[in-house]
Amino acid sequence: MLPFCPAHLLFFAILGVCCFALGLWLAFFRQGTPVAWLTELQGPLFEPMAAGQLTLQGLREQAPEGALWVRREEGRVVLSYGGRLAAAEASLDLLGELQLEDHERASLAQASGADASPQRLAGTVVQAMSARRLADVVLTPAEPVPIRDLVASLGEPRMRYALGQGEGWFYPQRGMTLMVRDGTLDWLRVTPRAALGEVREGEAPTAAPARLPPATEHR
């Protein structure tokens, strides 16, 4: 057995401390940091939407400079509120589809002549529809959100599945579907939990959100 001099022991002690510090740093790096805007919007936006209680008025309080649009999508008329909101120093595009009955869609189609091109509606219509509930809300962040930070905020998804060019993350208890691509969040959709029911892998939401023109370009 080879003897160790004090210098050798000191070297191994320093090496052990460095390895321990590196392990802690890697663990912290991989753990991620909770996303501030996900936390900030939980009370005013995500939970009411997941509970099926979010109204157009509640959505406008988060993005007051938005606008109401009508368009025809897959054979049906869709009424959506689009805008931009700021939360925890982050900028996000917002799109919320209003709940409509079939006869309301038919009347709206006849009155507006809606086609595939979005048409902006007058502010008086926004006021008249302020108590209407939302069918879903989609947020698209302007800045990349790493997936490790999503996990730090939301935990691991219940289900992962192929979605377009990326991967879908499904959180049924939160009413959330996330699209992640190239290691970052592409968009996040919140739907009432009651509308999801018992969703199996082949039935998970897959449709990408529509894109509306910025409201500021049409004022």
From TrEMBL:
Transmembrane segments: 6-28
Location of region: Disordered: 198-219
Low complexity bias spans: 204-219
Keywords, comma-separated and alphabetical: Membrane, Transmembrane, Transmembrane helix
Stated name of the protein: Uncharacterized protein
